[in-house]
Design goal:
globular, alpha+beta, 7 helices, five-stranded mixed sheet, 31% helix, three-stranded antiparallel sheet
Length: 255
Amino acid sequence: MPLAQIGGDGVFTKEIQRALLDGTVDVAVHSLKDLPTLPVAGLVLAAVPERGPTEDAFVSHRHGSVTALPEGATVATSSLRRKAQLLHRRPDLRLRDIRGNVETRLRKLRDEGLDALILARAGLERLGLGESITELLDPAWMLPAVGQGALGLECRADDAATRALLDQIDHRPTHRAVLAERAMLRSLGGGCQVPIGAATTGDGETLTVRGAVLSPDGRRRVEGQVEGRAADAEALGTQLAKELIAAGAGELLMM
């Protein structure tokens, strides 16, 4: 079964959030691209450390780039976002779902005759597997997932001592960037069932937020960009979502 059909938003986070709320644990560390954007009463995203790399990575033993893939090549990924953007650029490709941890997917690339995999650069590098990357995909056409490359530390909202400790490792520029992306996603109403990508850059004072919504087959792509004060991060994300919907993304979100 494709990953997006397993349980919807929160499939990786609900149990640990329950443990937070009942006091079994005091801090949860999430991959932010897996953390649902709707807040959970009693919990707060207390810290976001400095973000790692956000790009998606092309991994292949046979071909040097996405452009070099022959017509009809088989590429494996479990992400609807990656599939849609790949098909938008290369509609001739054959895309296949793949499951398992990173090492399992790399083994399947070798053992199952796949032409390529698409994985997150951050995940590969954090596991010491960066040498397996063949090409880093240009975010000009392969927008990352919301929150990709970032970790989020969550705790109970009324736990002042823990919040104070976590504040010491919070990286404000990263925190603001992911707040903008998550506000965009929340305002779009999209989750793992809809291909949505985002990328945020900034200089500490301003943020530029790019976003795109695609049809699952990649044929339609609606994208936009907003820029404004970093202090207004969530408002910027909400503004971008409204502009995307006005440009036609609303129809794609109901597909």
